[in-house]
C-alpha cells in the first residue's frame, strides 16, 4: 500500500522528535506507516507503539519486533501505553486529519470530489455517520457545527436549507448533499465552501477536537522529562488548541491559577515559536501538505 498516504513534513518531524537510540516512541496516527517507518530506522533497540482507529490501516502494519500497532483512537493513549508496558515515553508524533487513502476512497465520503456514501467515519465501526447528522440534527445543532467547525459565514442559511431539503427525501450521498445545498454557495468558491461543509461534518462525526484535547492532556502524563511532542495540524481549529496547550497547558490560552493566585505549572515548552510549514517543493510533490503546520514541544 505504498500510495496509502504520503507522509507530510517527514524530515522535519523526525528531526523534531530528537530521537535517541533505545528510546520508546509513539506515532498516534499510523495511517500508511510513512512516519513510523522513518522512526523505526532511528530507534536502534528501542520500541515504537503506533495507533490508528481505521481498520484499513492495519494492512500497513510493520513486521518488526520493535513495533506494536494499536487499533484504537489516540484519545486512549495512556491506557494502551500502560497495557503495553510503556507508561513513560521519549517522544510522541501526531499527524492529524484525514489520510490520502481516506480521501481517495470514494465510499468513505470524505472527499468533495467523489460520489460516495455520506459516511466520514474514521473508525469504520462507529455508529454516527455524516448521513445521521444531516438526517437527524436540528437546525440549531446543524448551524452550530457549521459555524464552529467549518467557520461558515451563512451557517444558519445552510442549516435551514438542509432541514428543508431532507423533508423531500433522505440525503444519503456526498453528491446529494452538494446538490441540496448548492444555492448556499452563491458568492463563494464552490470547492472552498463544500470543503468547509465536509470538514465540519467530519469533525462532528469523529469528535476530532474532543479526541485531540483528551490526547494532549495525556501527553504530559506519559512523556519523560526531555521527551518531545510533535503535532502536525491542517486547520486553524486544531492548530489553536495545540498552540494554546503547549504555551499555557489549557485550550483557551489562559494559564490556570491555584487558590492562592499562583500560576499552575506548564509542563511543555515550545521548541519552535512559529509553526513549521512545508517547503514549496514539498507542496508541489504533495498538494495535501499545503495547509500543514507543525509544532514541537518538550516536556520540562
Question: Mind explaining what this structure looks like?
Answer:
- The chain is of the alpha/beta class and 300 residues long.
- The chain is 39% helix and 14% strand.
- It contains twelve helices and seven strands.
- Strands 3-2-1-4-5-7-6 form a seven-stranded mixed beta sheet, sandwiched between helices.
In short:
The chain is of the alpha/beta class and 300 residues long. The chain has 12 helices and 7 strands.
What sequence of helices (H) and strands (E) makes up the elements?
HEHEEHEHHHHHHHEHEHE
Shape: globular
Number of helices: 12
CATH superfamily of the largest domain: Vaccinia Virus protein VP39
E-strand count? 7
How would you classify the helix and strand content by structural class? alpha/beta
Secondary structure layout plus pairing:
Layout: H1 10-17, E1 24-27, H2 34-42, E2 47-51, E3 67-70, H3 77-83, E4 89-95, H4 100-104, H5 130-136, H6 139-150, H7 155-165, H8 174-181, H9 190-206, H10 208-222, E5 223-233, H11 236-248, E6 268-270, H12 280-285, E7 293-299
Helix pairs in contact: 6-7, 6-9, 10-11
